[in-house]
Design brief:
The complex is a heterodimer of chains A (342) and B (238).
Chain A lengths: L1 E11 L4 E12 L4 E6 L5 H8 L7 E6 L2 E2 L5 H9 L1 E5 L10 H11 L4 H14 L15 H13 L5 E5 L7 H18 L2 E6 L2 H7 L2 E6 L2 E7 H6 L4 H10 L6 H4 L10 E9 L7 H8 L3 E12 L2 E11 L2 H13 L3 E7 L1
Parallel strand pairs in A: 3-8, 3-9, 6-7, 7-8
Antiparallel strand pairs in A: 1-2, 1-4, 4-5, 9-10, 11-13, 11-14, 12-13
Helix pairs in contact in A: 3-4, 3-5, 4-5, 5-6
Chain B lengths: L3 H5 L1 H5 L6 H39 L9 H16 L2 H7 L1 H8 L5 H25 L3 H9 L4 H12 L1 H27 L1 H12 L3 H31 L3
The chains are: A alpha/beta (342), B mainly alpha (238).
Bound molecules: adenosine-5'-triphosphate and magnesium ion.
Chain lengths: 342, 238
């Protein structure tokens, strides 16, 4: 739905040049929610703003639904923009217009006949759950309600894609969740492609199908959200993920005293993803093999709808039994890493 | 013009009893009406020219929706040149133009020419300041929806700036009230002429005082009206 090819953006300032995007190539599929995450100044906003040409790329080309956005003349660009919705961190609603008239605004721009436009606004108010606020001015709304108006406004002309630049960054966690849920519902109902930018991995975790990590003007990693979460390939991704899921085992655990006088002991880390997280594999292992299991640390998280987690286990028993038990776990699709073997 | 001699000339005040009051009322009300009419029409004409000029000054700026740096600089210089000419000199400078437009340079209609022209660059700067207060995010949002320049001007810039624009109208009107009094001294009609002929040249302090009181009431009234309308425009949004 969106193809970005060799996109480079250089800002010219009087004193120097800023390389904001460096040869970015990215392809976003129809109907997916694609997240872009990166630290402040990484170039996220610049990237998303190039897609509707609020920022003119220095080099490279961008296609939206097969149309090359980067080579359109002014008039065609305005038409193309009507089909690319955008929502903003600070909502950008017109304070001189009511909620109703704010949503009407893009329809006025597109020249939709008045009666048709009004019924469309009512549909949208219903979609975002703000029918009772139609006559209210934005100044009287909460942040979450303002963003709902922003979303309704962005959807007014039935766009092919929705761009979201930090749309939840000004909201509290609960409101963020409700806005993300709304985006997810819209994505499902309308099969709308959504590109969202954030510096918060929680946002990616809750709604995105795929994610790209941008660091220092470059894309350093692209992948399925689950695989990036369970197996981050770059230090940047790793640090983002650590901020939301404890994938790392606290260090003192691996240093835990293990008494060598007792049976052979092994400290292992078990990682599980998806369906196996729901099954009682550990307890059946204990029943099956005559070993003791001491759970030192555990955590479970959810990416979109897939659970994944880690357990740190101390296995105590005959060496051969320990080997068999571990093999049993591997057979059932769990990933095992031996942290200590005494 | 409000000098000590005129003030101390009490006999003429006392003698006011012998003044024909209906004559006084007629003179004062005619002059008041002339001033109101001159100021309202000049303000309106100044906005007809100054508002578009102010809008152009904003949108042709660097990075704005219709960036045109040469045009912007030229207009900026012209506006500044006109703004730096003192009104009293401006009055004399535009006499040839006034003659050309209205056929003479005495009277209320004639004074509307310098009043309007003097106010245009002032209005342009006031409008420019008001429009620049608008958050750039709103303009970007409109651009992202595919709005053209005209739609951004009429649907974003002007409505969003309306409280500030209303206050600008009040300031312009008040300025033109005082300018009109100045124009009155050189035969422009209205309260200025009245104060000058009867109050200053003939020491009729009563007329001078009445003129001042009426001018104060006018200025106060315009300010209160402007504040109220602007506050109403803001409150509606809260
Ligand atoms: N108009 C501009 N002129 C000059 N430099 C700019 C401009 N806009 C952005 N930059 C620079 O480009 C780089 C990328 O900025 P960008 O706004 O895309 O970052 P970001 O990832 O969105 O950051 P944040 O999370 O803080 O919003 C930064 O170094 C920034 O200073
Ligand atoms: Mg940004």
């Amino acid at each position: 739905m969106i193809q970005i090819e060799h996109l480079t953006k250089i800002f010219e300032t009087p004193s120097h040049q800023v390389l904001a995007l460096d040869d970015v190539t990215l392809s976003i599929n129809k109907g997916e929610i694609f997240g872009i995450i990166g630290l402040s100044g990484a170039g996220k906003s610049t990237l998303i703003r190039c897609i509707n040409m609020l920022e003119k790329p220095t080099q490279g080309s961008i296609y939206v639904d097969g149309q090359q956005i980067t080579s359109l003349d002014k008039r065609d660009l305005r038409c193309a923009r009507q089909k690319i919705g955008m929502i903003f961190q600070h909502f950008n609603l017109l304070s001189s217009r009511t909620v109703f008239d704010n949503i009407l605004f893009p329809l006025e721009i597109a020249g939709v006949p008045s009666a048709q436009a009004k019924s469309r606004v009512n549909e949208l108010l219903d979609l975002v759950g703000l029918t009772d606020k139609a006559g209210v001015y934005p100044g009287q709304l909460s942040g979450g309600q303002k963003q709902r108006v922003g979303i309704a406004r962005a959807l007014a002309n039935n766009p092919k894609v929705l761009l979201s630049d930090e749309a939840t960054s000004a909201l509290d966690p609960q409101t963020t969740s409700s806005i993300l849920k709304l985006l997810k519902d819209i994505n499902r109902q309308l099969n709308l492609t959504i590109l969202l930018i954030t510096h918060d991995m929680n946002v990616i975790k809750q709604v995105c199908d795929r994610v790209a990590v941008i660091d220092n003007s470059r894309i350093v990693e692209i992948g399925d959200v689950l695989s990036v979460f369970t197996n981050p390939a770059t230090p940047t991704s790793h640090s983002f993920i650590n901020a939301v899921v404890k994938n790392d085992i606290p260090e003192d655990l691996t240093l835990a005293k293990i008494d060598p006088q007792r049976h052979p002991t092994r400290l292992i880390r078990v990682s599980f993803i998806g369906s196996s997280a729901g099954q009682p594999i550990i307890s059946s292992m204990i029943r099956r093999y005559d070993i003791d299991v001491n759970i030192l640390y555990g955590n479970i998280d959810r990416v979109k709808d897939t659970p994944f987690g880690n357990l740190v286990l101390e296995l105590i028993g005959e060496a051969s039994l320990l080997d068999e038990a571990m093999a049993y776990l591997r057979e059932r699709g769990l990933e095992i890493e031996v942290l200590k073997n005494v | 013009m409000f000098d000590a001699i005129a003030l101390l000339n009490l006999p003429s005040l006392v003698g006011a009893a012998s003044v024909d009051f209906s004559w006084l009322i007629e003179k004062v009300s005619l002059a008041t009406w002339e001033t109101i009419y001159m100021v309202i029409i000049s303000t309106a004409l100044a906005y007809v020219m100054g508002l578009p000029l102010g809008v152009i000054l904003v949108i042709t700026e660097k990075g704005h929706i219709l960036e045109n740096i040469p045009l912007n600089s030229i207009l900026g210089v012209i506006v500044n040149v006109f703004r730096s000419i003192p009104f009293i000199i401006f009055l004399i400078l535009v006499i040839p133009l006034t003659k050309l437009i209205v056929g003479g340079f005495i009277g209320t209609v004639a004074s509307m020419v310098p009043l309007t022209l003097a106010a245009v660059p002032f209005v342009a700067r006031l409008v420019e300041t008001s429009l620049k207060e608008i958050d750039w995010g709103l303009i970007e949002a409109a651009l992202s929806m595919g709005a053209n320049a005209w739609q951004i001007i009429t649907k974003v810039l002007l409505p969003e700036a309306s409280p500030s624009l209303i206050l600008g109208v009040a300031i312009t009107t008040i300025n033109l009230v005082s300018y009109s009094a100045m124009a009155g001294i050189v035969g422009g009609g209205g309260l200025g002429t009245l104060a000058y002929y009867y109050g200053y040249q003939r020491y009729q302090t009563l007329i001078l005082l009445i003129t001042v009181v009426i001018l104060v009431i006018m200025v106060q009234g315009v300010q209160v009206l402007g504040d109220t309308l602007a506050a109403r425009a803001v409150n509606r949004r809260r």
